[in-house]
User: What shape does this take?
Amino acid sequence: MPYCIYLRKSRADAEAELAGEGETLARHEKSLLALAKRQKLPITKIYREIVSGETIAARPVMQELLQTIEARQWEGVLVMEVERLARGDTMDQGVILNAFKYSDTKIITPAKTYDPNNEFDEEYFEFGLFMSRREYKTILRRMQRGREASVSEGKFIGSIPPYGYTRVKLPKEKGYTLAVVPEEAAAVKLAFELYAYGEVQEDGTIREIGRPSIAKRFSDMGLKNRKGAAWATSSVTRMLQNPVYAGNVVWKYRQEKKTTENGKIKITRPVNPDFLCVKGLHEPIVSPELWEAVQEKMKKSATSPLPPKSAMKNPLSGLVRCSFCGNLMQRRPYQKSSQPATLICATHNCPQISAPLYMVERRILEALEEWAEQHNATWDTAAPQNFAAKTDLLETSLQSAEKELELLEKQFEKTFELLETGVYSAEVFTQRNEMLSRKISEAKTTIAGIKKEIAALQKMQMEQTSFFPKIRALLETYDSLPPAAQNRRLKEILDHVEYHKTVNGRWHNSPDSFEIQLFPAISKDF
Ligand SMILES: [Zn+2]
Assistant: This one.
């Protein structure tokens, strides 16, 4: 998000100017632009307060700035000293402070950056000429009462609209409400429905969809959250718990709780059981029934952890696939304890014929052994070149991307010079500056993407070089391990095993007349 500069003359400045000290605003503008250049901040607007009024009412430019701050238009505001923002009337100071606080807008001065996100209230509100804590608290209480009243009228009082909505000013009265953003709302609805009802699979069964899967699906769809980042499970949880989507507005829904952990203050925002919830003026995205269904489900998943797993008996669990239908084959214990368990395909009407599980297991181990011996000699020499060529290619594109970024950053710095020397008008400057900062962030994304690819390639190479030693280790220790550990070790090496049998062993007296094919658990990409 961009930054802006706010310039304002104090009464003392006006006197100094009379004494011949030169034009104050121009001087301040120069030093704030230099500050922006040093910190690489994209400046897209400069506010100049010409009148030196003390109250907000007497400062039209401040009024305009406050509106844009409340609309969360700025990452931060550059100002010579915090006192330039507010001085005089304490009520005004409270208004200004809260505008910065609730919109998470930074105040950047040459001396210090005030960040309402990172600094604690006490410190944040300590600065400058601002009022005493008691005065501040009184004002805050008064404002809170105003906010509570707004909520009870169904208005939206937050500064950030929830995903799926945009914040709109109410016509002909004070306050805001929410308007649906159709494409975002579709994603919200999808999340609620997937979580509440699951998803119908090709075979007609219904699969439960959890919050991590929803987050992943959103990311795969390229959706970004309100902060422009990828969706995390926790943000999906907060979305699914937000009463706003059922058409309600809430007051004190989550309350900040400060605790100390390792000497550091930690802030959490748990749901407050006594929150105020009223019907909002906005249009709901999901029905109250769907919203409730989701809450019920979430309560259940929080209170009933998965039942304790009984000890795994099948070392081939989740590993062997049927050659006919592709489904995973299952262990079926034999009724009589003297007989060994079999491995069966449970798909209805599948022609696959079962075999004793221990035989399939032995065959897999034998195949692994054979495989390790066969490939041992050729593996190490054949693949690394392939890796090298791919890595080289990526490194080359990384270099050129980094070069481009460097160039863009130089151009970015240059815009400040061109403004200072008068080559650029303020308008051309802000345009260029905005365009370049956008390109810079694009270049950064590209670079991050290439770096990720290189890391993945390196991981693949690692996997490959450790693959055969892993097989050796498995073969040496296999028989001494419990089934669950055997299963885990097999899965480190094998993606899956395909099983195929057409001769019914029981009648042909050939229980081991089956075929298996191993699929290694390493990327087949090289
Ligand atoms: Zn089958």
Observations:
- Residues 254 and 270 are 5 Å apart (CA to CA).
- The pocket of zinc ion is lined by residues 322, 324-325, 327, 345, 347, 350, 352 (CB under 6 Å).
- The longest strand covers residues 43-49.
- Residues 176-302 form a domain with the Hect, E3 ligase catalytic domain fold fold (CATH 3.90.1750.20).
